[in-house]
Task: structure prediction
Amino acid sequence: MTYGPNAGSLVRPPADHHEEAHTPVFVGERREQLDVILSRYPTKMAALLPALWMVQDARGWVSEGAMEEVAAVLDLTPAYVKGVTSFYTMYHQHPVGKHFIQVCTTTPCNVCGAEDVVQAFLDATGCGELGLTSPDGRFTVIEVECLGACGFATPVMINDEFIESVTPELARRIVTERD
Amino acid sequence: MLSTYFGDPEARTLAGWRARGGYEALEKALAMDPAEIQTLVKDSGLRGRGGAGFPTGIKWSFMKPDGKVHYLCCNADESEPGTFKDREIMRWTPHGLVEGVALGAHAIYAETAYIYIRGEFTEPIARVQAAVEEAYAAGILGANAMGTGRRLDVHVHRGAGAYICGEETALMNSLEGRRGNPRIKPPFPAVAGLFGKPTTINNVETLTTVPYIVKHGAAWYNAFGRADNPKSRGTKLFSVCGNIARPGNYEVELGFPFGEFLNELCGGALPGREIKAVIPGGSSVPILTREEANAAVMDYEGMVAAGTMLGSGGVIVFDDRQDMVKQIARLARFYAHESCAQCSQCREGTAWTTRILERIAAGDGHARDFDTLLSIGENMSGKTICVLSDSCATPVASGLKKFRHEFEAKLGPDRSRGVVPALPILGKTAAA
Result:
């Protein structure tokens, strides 16, 4: 058994992972959108988290090439951008499954059976292990720390969708209903 | 008060909010001098609802008309396990929050306010963003806020997954585009906060409460609470979760008996079960036994008298099925995962506490582990930049004290050598 703080919450890169040449994200409409965001803050740096969200929304994850682009757009260094990106758990630093499933297993959900929900997702998706992407590339399942919906145990996030009161049965149904 | 419109979808729109008396308080406040609002809030007895319980009016009075740029930050990074009240406020009454934020900004001589919402709260973000856009379109916010000729901007800022960003100085760093590491105080935010400017940070519930005080007066708000405690006034939202018949959010007058709250309002234990332990104020506060909880009073001083804290009002209930060792280990894992790793006492302390507790929970513990845990806890308390480290040590120490028999029942065979947990370090595994 693995003891330790990160058991269950680390996403591992797919076996065939390689980074393709980066095509710019901040062009056209997205560039205009970024300018609107920039106007809300007195510094360019403050737009870093929003910019990283825009990258992830557009590409599904934040590649090193994207970090370089963000750095250039906001007058930062790529190393600085990587330092910030890696601090926050929601930015993916390599590709993840089409449906990225985060199951809350912190104490309040844990006492309501969250671990059974995790197991149901692992079995139904074929991921087998936490943090691994299923062989068909459709699913990744991780444990997440407190989603802030403790009274609706067990809350689950699938990409940006927030689902409350998930039971093992509902977990299996959710997986069958996804493409 | 705060929960009146929970479940009422019409209250979410500007028209619906106005029909319910919304934005009247903001209009009234914009005609008042900020110092007058600060005094009003001071007189109301409102204290910060995010966990620390600092008097809001006093916090605001640190902000003077000094000609500098000021900022208001609304802390909507609700991530304390057991707490989900701000989420309900943002989902059901987003205009209530926007009104409170705009009012708060005016009261501290600020033109700009940011609402920092945790990244996982996709629905609350969408609701609050929609409310902000409606408020701009109606001229409530913007260059000529409510026709006063004054500028008032409110922006929504999305976090990206970090509990520590709920700590006010970490929140400011995160908003500035940095890693969410807490800052050393002093300087305090009121002197040098966001972008180096004087800043006030308030919780969602606190800011949403202020319009009611402006509308109905300080005396009206101050009348809520138990007669013999002048220090805890008003109402408060409590989130209840875990092994309880009716989980959810409850708004009660401060000073409400905790036993009646748990057993009557929340319906007590699940059928055929018994409540064993209760964490009354979010995962960072000492654990209570059932007997202690039943005798406690729900206000700041009442919870201190019971040996714990009111905290954020997140009530976590454990019933007789639960293995307290496992659950306390899970709490420690939360803190270890969320430590920003800036201070070594916290980075190492939370991780070692977790490893030792998980080893005990797996049936491989030794009696000397208890002293080790307490000693680590002591070295984690009061020695770091922020209180995340203390927050990990607190439930462990109280759990070990109150549920020691459960820990003892889990001990493994004695060994002549010190017990070292199996750690995967750089691919190697230390021998157990």
